[in-house]
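Subject: sequence -> C-alpha cells, single chain

Hey, anyone have a minute? Need the predicted structure for the following. Not urgent.
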Amino acid sequence: MTREEYANMLLPNVLHDRKYYEEKYKKRNLKPGAMVTRIGPSPTGFVHIGTLYQAIVANKLAKQSEGVCFLRVEDTDQKRLVENGIEQILEAVKTYQIPFDEYPIDMESEVGEYGPYIQSKRVDIYQAFVKDLIIKDLAYPSFLTEEEKKEMTEKQQKRKQRIGYYGIWASKERSLTMEEVQEKVASGIPYVIRLKSKGSFENKVVIEDCIKGKLEFPENDMDHVLLKSDGIPTYHFAHAVDDTLMGTTHVTRGDEWLSSLPLHIELFQTLGFEPPKYAHLATIQKEEDGKKRKISKRKDPEANVKFYNEKGIPVEAVKIYLMTLANSNFEEWFLANPDKDINEFELHFENMSTSGALFDMEKLLNISRNYLSRITAEEFYNQILEWAEIYSQDFVEDLKTYKDIIIATLNIERNVVKPRKDYDMYSEIESNINYMYHFENPEYEWQKITEMKEIKNILQTYRTKYFNEEDNDEVWFNKIKDMCDELGYASNMKEYKKNPENYKGNVADVSTVLRVALTGRSRTPNLYDIMKILGKEEITGRIALLEDEA
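Reply:
Had a minute. Here:
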C-alpha cells in the first residue's frame, strides 16, 4: 500500500487535493505594509465583550494600513455550539457597526472572495491538507479510547509527569503499520488524525509578539488532534490552514492563547507555511476584593455585549471606551479632539498594554454621558426610539405621542458651551423625563420647606402675582427674588449666609418648592426651560393639585 492509498483509506471522501486549494486562494494584491487581520468568534455562547474589543482593534489596524479585516466564524467545536450562536455573532457585528471587508451575511450568503467564512463549510479544505500530511508521514491515525486516555492521564499524574499525548505515550500508535491501521479501520474502530510532532520539550521556540515583545516557550512535542473522529478539524489546525489561505498577516487575539503559540508555530511549519505575526491583547479584567481577575462569562453580566444593548449604553460610547483600553494615548487624544471621528486616531502596538486592561463601568458611563450630551436632541430622540422598539415597547407609545415634548426636554441646556450631562443610558430616560408628560398622583420630594400651609402660600402667591408665561429667563428669576422678599425669604444668597436667622429660608428653597410642585422632583434640568415646555395650562393645573389639597 502506498502512502497515497493509505491516506485515501483514512480520508476517502476528500473532493480536492491541497494543490487545488492553494491555487484557488490567490495571494492578496495589497500595497506593502497593508495588514490583513481577522476576528474569529466561536458560536459557543453569547458574544463576549473581549471579542468586540479584539474586533475593534483588528479593524482599526487593517483600515489605517489600507489593508483588509475579515470575520471568520469558527464553529469547529460542534459539541459546544449554542442555538442561534452564529446569528448572535452576526447581530453583534451589525449592532456595533464593525466595518468588516469580508464576512458572512447569513448562513447562505457572504461578502468576499476567500470564503466560505464559516469554518464548518470549509471541512473539505482541512481534510485535503490533513491528507497531504498523512502522505508525507507528518500525521497519523489514533484509535485511543476515552478509557485509555483516562488511564494514561492517571499514570502520568501518579508518576508526576506532564499530562498529554507525547513521546513514549504516543509511541505505540505512532508505530502501527499500515496493515494494522487498515485492519482497525475495517473493523469500524473510530479514530482521529494526530500531528506527528517533531518538537522537543527541551528546546525553546522564540516568538516576537507585536505587543509583548520577545517570548520564549518550550517547543511543542504533543501529538495534538488535527481532525476529530467526525472529520471536523480542531481550532488549532483549522486556523493555521485558514490564516494562510486567507492571507492573514497579523493575528490579534487575547493573551489566553499564549500557551498555544508553540503548537501553532509548529503547525505552520509542518504545513510548510510562514506563520503570521501575532499580537496578544491583554485580557479585560475586573477588580474584586482588591484583586484583579479576568472578566467572567459566568460571574459578570457586563461580559456579554447584550448587557450594553439592553441597558441602552450607546454603541459609540462602548467603542470609545474600548479604544481607551486598546491604546494608552487614546484618551488624551480624544479629550483634545472631542469632535473628531475616532477612526482618525492611529492605533499602535507599542501603546498597547502588556498586562490586564481593567474594566471600569463608571468610566464607561462617564464616556456615555459625554457622548449623549454632544449629539443633537433629535439624534438623541431617534437613538432612544430605536432602542425602545427592541427593549421597551411601552415606552415607544409615549415616545411617539409626546415626541415634541421629549425632544424639547432633551434639548434643555444642550446647545451651550458646557452642556448638561443628565443621561448615561437609554433605559433610564423614561424614568428621568416622564414627569414632563405624565403627572398623575405624583410623589413630591419636598426639601427644606415641608409645611404644606407654607408651600401652598408660596405657590398661590406665585400663581396669582408673579407668573407670566411671556417672561424671559432673567425677568422670571427676578420675579422669584421679588416674591422671596415679599414672603420673608432671602433673595440674595450672600446676605442669607451672613444672617440666616433673619429669614425663613432663601431663594433656592423657594425655587425648590416651585420645582417640586411642577415636576415632583427636587433635581431637574433648568426650571425655567421646563416651564416653557409645560406651558401655562399645565403649570396652573399642577399648582392647583396642591392648592386644592385640604
